[in-house]
Structure formats: structure tokens, C-alpha cells
């Protein structure tokens, strides 16, 4: 087990405590293991990677030991494991079959040899999906560990209390918590992504500065690795073009600054795909001036899927943006007919003021929640339909919620007053407005 620990510590920096606990809890093949182990932590903390690599080395080591050692006076142990992604299992039958397959397969293979028996470990990744299955599944699976030499290991991003079946009793697991990576751990991990032809100190300088830029908005290691992979070619490009040397760090970051700024808005927020970024960023070069670089990157949004929205869905997005950023008092001013405006002109409209007496900009405050009825009323006014449209608006709204373009801000129980909030920028809704020939600036309070 010591050799396994050394390999894992070299491959996974910052996980010494967790690796030592694993080696202690997952016993030797000749010993009885822990029946139930629960591993939880935030996403991208190395849970699945470390467990997969651990059992790969674990099985390989003891298979070699069986070949090199004479065990005629002992029972031969054949360790085996299975890693199951719970998101792929649609029913308890499928999950039971996958969980017991390694043990049943080895039992059938070695039933004729009385001096041999099997030891199996079943790893259930994304264990929070088990909540969608039968409430008796987890207790039933854990009872099997009392009958055969089978260990259950669950990997999840949530705690055991959120998965524990409430209607039945189940044994308490031994828990291992994977903490968030520190800055030094992240830099040591990203060091493995350095290209073969590039010097590691130069690459680490870039990674350190990139982490300082994105650490407030991105703590996901997988996301940081993706951004490093896409931005490093633009950082080192001036070196190959003769615009700067590797020692001129300040100049390199000055030339790469437009990409950093645009990456936060477009790349990190998925307004543009990795493929489109690589395809379109080739047009920009350090030999160009800043305006050309920024223009080249800004034009990447042209083919980012805005044209793929249905026509009426675009107006739903426009209506939601207006509902989030316009005060409800001004709906009559923007959308009422001329006769209605004259009828209410005596009442007047009180404009929103800040503490200094100036006009308060809603764009700086952020989107506000709005009731569904208000958004639909604006939607019908913008399109000026004589009757209801043929599409199912509620299905379209549900799709926008799934795409995270709309966020439901009310509870599930309050069906009479469902409220939403838009979750996209002004630049995004401007592109949508241009695609349908709509001038959204005329209907926003901030631009009047």
C-alpha cells in the first residue's frame, strides 16, 4: 500500500490526508474492509479521479503479488472493483445489476476452487442521484454487505444527511471530506498542463496571474484548466511574433489583457464555446492595435447561438429583460396607448432618484424579480397580437429556465404569484434585439 500512496501523492497534490485515510480504510485483500464509506466534497476536488486511480493501482499490485508469491497454504484473494455513475442508471434494477456484477462474475469464475474467494468494492459516483430512486434502495444495498464481502463507497457533492433515507433506518457511514484546493495546490495541479515545449517557470507565471484574475469568479478547477488551455496560446503568441521576450512579463500581460477581459464575460459565462474561441481568436494578433483585438474578440458573439432561438422566444427574452430592469410604474408610459396616456397624464410618474438626487441606473443595481403576468403583458404589447399566439408560452418559459436564462425567484408553493428574474447581460439581449429588428434602448428606463 505504501507504493500506491507514493504514486497517488505524486499525481494528486494537496490530497495527502485523504489518500492516507483511503489506504487505511480500504484494507488488504486478506482483511475485512469497511462495509460503507461515504466521500463528499465540492465538484472538481479530485474525488472520482483519486478513487479510480487508487483501485486501478490496488488491483494491479495484488494481481502481481499473486503471480510472484506461492499462496498454497492460504486462501487466494482476487480483489475487484466497479465504478458506477448513478446518472446512467434509470432504475433500481439496472443499478443493482451493475453494483453486483463484479462480485457475481468472479464468483461464477472461481466457484470450483474452494481455496479462493473474492473481495469486491463498488463505487457509486454522483450518489445524490439515488434520491430519485426507491426509498428502500440504499438500505437494501447496504444489507447485502452483511452477507457477502462487498464494500459500498459513495461519492457525492452533498452531505450524507441529504441522501439518508428518512422512512427507513440505514447504517452510518465512515465519511471522508475533500476540502477545496488552496492556491498552491491549484498551481501545482495546473503545472501538469504545461506544454512539452514550454518552460515550466514561464508557464507557472502565467497560471499564477490568471488565477489572481479569475479566483473571485471561478473556484472550479476544471473550469480554470479550460481557461488556461484556451488563453495560454494568446499569452505566448507575442513571443513567437517578436513583439516581446519571455522575460518581459509586464509587456506580455499588457498585450494579453484584452483576452483576459473578454474571457471573463464570454468564455467563462459560456456566451461563446471553446471551439468558437479558438477559431475566431486566431484573427487577433499582438501585431494589431488594441481596438482591432477587442473588435475581433467582440465579434465572436455573432455565431454563438443567438440565431438558433425561435422568433417568439426572442421576444420572451426581450420582455423578461425589460421587466427586470424597468420599474413597474413606467409600464404605462412605454406600452400604453395614446388615449390611456392622456387619461393618466394628470397623475404623472415619479422617477426614481438616488441619494444625491440623480437618476438611479437599474443596470448598476442588477435585475429585479418580476411576476409572470407582467412579462406576458409586455410580450403581447411588443408583438401586438390580435389573439394568443399558437406556441405554448409556458413550455418556452420552462426551457429558458432550464437554460439558466431565466431564474425562478419564488417558491414552488406560491403558484399564484410565480416570479422570475433574467440572467443575461445587456449585450446578449442587444444581439437578440438586432436579430428581430427591435430597438430595445427605446423601452429601457436607463437609456431615456
UniProtKB/TrEMBL annotation:
Pfam families: ORC5_C (PF14630), ORC5_lid (PF21639). The keyword Nucleus applies. GO terms for molecular function: DNA replication origin binding. The keyword Nucleus applies. Residues 204-260 form the ORC5 lid domain. InterPro entries: ORC5 (IPR020796), ORC5_C (IPR047088), ORC5_lid (IPR048866), P-loop_NTPase (IPR027417). It is found in: Nucleus. GO terms for cellular component: nuclear origin of replication recognition complex. One of its GO terms (biological process) is DNA replication initiation. It comes from the Eukaryota. Keywords: DNA replication, Nucleus. Gene3D superfamilies: 1.10.8.60, P-loop containing nucleotide triphosphate hydrolases. Its main location: nucleus. Residues 309-444 form the Origin recognition complex subunit 5 C-terminal domain. PANTHER family: ORIGIN RECOGNITION COMPLEX SUBUNIT 5. This is Orc1-like AAA ATPase domain-containing protein. It comes from Smittium simulii.
Amino acid at each position: 500500500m505504501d507504493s500506491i500512496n507514493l504514486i497517488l501523492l505524486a499525481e494528486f497534490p494537496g490530497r495527502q490526508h485523504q489518500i492516507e485515510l483511503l489506504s487505511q480504510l480500504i484494507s488488504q485483500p486478506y482483511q475485512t474492509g469497511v462495509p460503507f464509506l461515504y466521500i463528499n466534497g465540492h465538484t472538481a476536488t479530485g474525488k472520482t479521479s483519486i478513487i479510480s486511480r487508487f483501485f486501478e493501482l490496488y488491483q494491479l499490485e495484488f494481481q502481481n503479488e499473486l503471480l510472484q508469491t506461492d499462496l498454497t497454504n492460504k486462501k487466494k484473494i482476487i480483489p475487484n472493483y466497479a465504478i458506477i455513475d448513478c446518472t446512467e442508471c434509470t432504475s433500481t434494477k439496472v443499478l443493482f445489476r451493475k453494483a453486483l456484477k463484479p462480485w457475481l462474475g468472479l464468483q461464477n469464475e472461481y466457484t470450483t476452487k474452494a481455496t479462493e474467494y473474492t473481495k469486491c468494492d463498488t463505487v457509486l459516483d454522483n450518489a445524490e442521484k439515488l434520491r430519485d430512486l426507491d426509498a428502500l434502495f440504499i438500505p437494501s444495498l447496504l444489507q447485502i454487505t452483511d452477507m457477502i464481502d462487498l464494500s459500498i463507497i459513495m461519492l457525492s457533492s452533498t452531505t450524507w444527511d441529504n441522501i439518508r433515507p428518512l422512512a427507513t433506518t440505514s447504517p452510518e457511514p465512515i465519511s471522508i471530506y475533500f476540502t477545496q484546493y488552496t492556491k498552491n495546490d491549484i498551481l501545482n495541479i495546473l503545472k501538469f498542463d504545461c506544454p512539452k515545449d514550454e518552460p515550466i517557470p514561464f508557464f507557472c507565471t502565467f497560471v499564477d496571474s490568471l488565477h489572481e484574475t479569475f479566483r473571485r469568479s471561478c473556484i472550479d478547477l476544471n473550469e480554470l484548466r479550460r481557461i488556461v488551455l484556451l488563453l495560454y496560446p494568446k499569452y505566448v503568441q507575442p513571443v513567437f511574433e517578436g513583439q516581446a521576450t519571455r522575460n518581459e512579463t509586464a509587456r506580455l500581460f499588457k498585450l494579453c489583457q484584452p483576452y483576459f477581459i473578454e474571457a471573463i464575460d464570454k468564455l467563462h459565462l459560456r456566451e461563446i464555446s471553446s471551439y468558437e474561441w479558438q477559431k475566431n481568436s486566431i484573427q487577433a494578433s499582438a501585431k494589431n492595435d488594441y481596438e482591432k483585438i477587442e473588435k475581433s474578440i467582440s465579434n465572436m458573439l455573432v455565431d454563438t447561438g443567438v440565431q438558433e432561438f425561435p422568433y417568439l422566444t426572442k421576444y420572451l427574452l426581450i420582455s423578461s429583460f425589460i421587466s427586470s430592469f424597468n420599474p413597474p410604474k413606467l409600464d404605462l408610459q412605454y406600452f400604453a396607448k395614446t388615449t390611456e396616456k392622456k387619461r393618466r397624464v394628470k397623475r404623472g410618474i415619479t422617477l426614481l432618484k438616488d441619494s444625491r438626487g440623480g437618476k438611479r441606473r437599474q443596470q448598476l443595481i442588477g435585475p429585479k424579480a418580476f411576476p409572470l403576468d407582467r412579462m406576458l403583458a409586455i410580450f403581447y404589447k411588443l408583438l401586438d397580437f390580435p389573439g394568443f399566439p399558437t406556441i405554448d408560452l409556458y413550455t418556452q418559459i420552462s426551457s429558458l429556465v432550464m437554460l439558466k436564462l431565466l431564474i425562478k425567484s419564488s417558491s414552488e408553493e406560491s403558484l399564484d404569484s410565480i416570479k422570475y428574474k433574467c440572467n443575461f447581460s445587456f449585450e446578449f439581449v442587444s444581439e437578440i434585439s438586432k436579430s428581430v429588428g427591435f430597438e430595445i434602448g427605446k423601452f429601457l428606463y436607463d437609456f431615456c
